[in-house]
Amino acid sequence: MPYVMVPVPEDQVEDVMQHIVRLMSQASIEPWDESSMETLFGSIDEPSRALLSSVARAAMSGERLSEADSAALVQLSQRETMGLLRELNDYANDDHRPPLILRRAASETLPNGRTRDVRVLIMSDDIAPLVATADRKHLLSDHPLGPDRE
């Protein structure tokens, strides 16, 4: 690999090095595929699966899923749900893959016409179908009348 020396002002060396490290870590990220998603589904607990599948369903249908709604869907507190989200994204980071679920701020219009900011959970269009497929396979393998049962 060729190296290029570039002069950098002394006061900006740290910023440039951080930028280079960030670029190198992004280059080492592997995309999610069916196999890696199925491995993930086999290694996480049911509340984590429920969170993943609910965010994937919302992403595939084009709906917004707020943090409060996601907590209600997995029947946990909002704090516990955000802990699951952090654990899932830590798993992805440790496996050198992109984050599974992201948090974003969005505006919501209230019935009185005013707007307020809410936190929503989103999933990329590449990851959501993989989650749905892995979820379906996992549910079928656990079902008493699934393909592996007689």
Brief characterization of the structure:
55% of the residues lie in helices and 12% in strands. With 150 residues, it is an alpha+beta fold.
The CATH topology is what?
A: Arc Repressor Mutant, subunit A
Q: How far apart, in Å, are the first and last alpha carbons?
A: 56 Å
Strand content: 5-15%
Measured as a percent range, the helix fraction is 40-55%
Give the biggest sheet.
Answer: 3 strands, antiparallel
Strand numbers in spatial order across the main sheet: 1-3-2
Structural Rg:
20 Å
Structural class: alpha+beta
Give the CATH architecture: Orthogonal Bundle
CATH level 1 name: Mainly Alpha
Taken from the alpha-carbon principal axes, the silhouette is: globular
Provide the number of structural domains: 1
User: How many helical stretches?
Assistant: 6
- The CATH superfamily title: Winged helix-like DNA-binding domain superfamily/Winged helix DNA-binding domain
Sequence of secondary-structure elements: HHHEHHEEH
Provide the low-confidence segments as ranges: none
Query: Which whole number gives the mean pLDDT?
Result: 87
Q: Give the number of DSSP strands.
A: 3
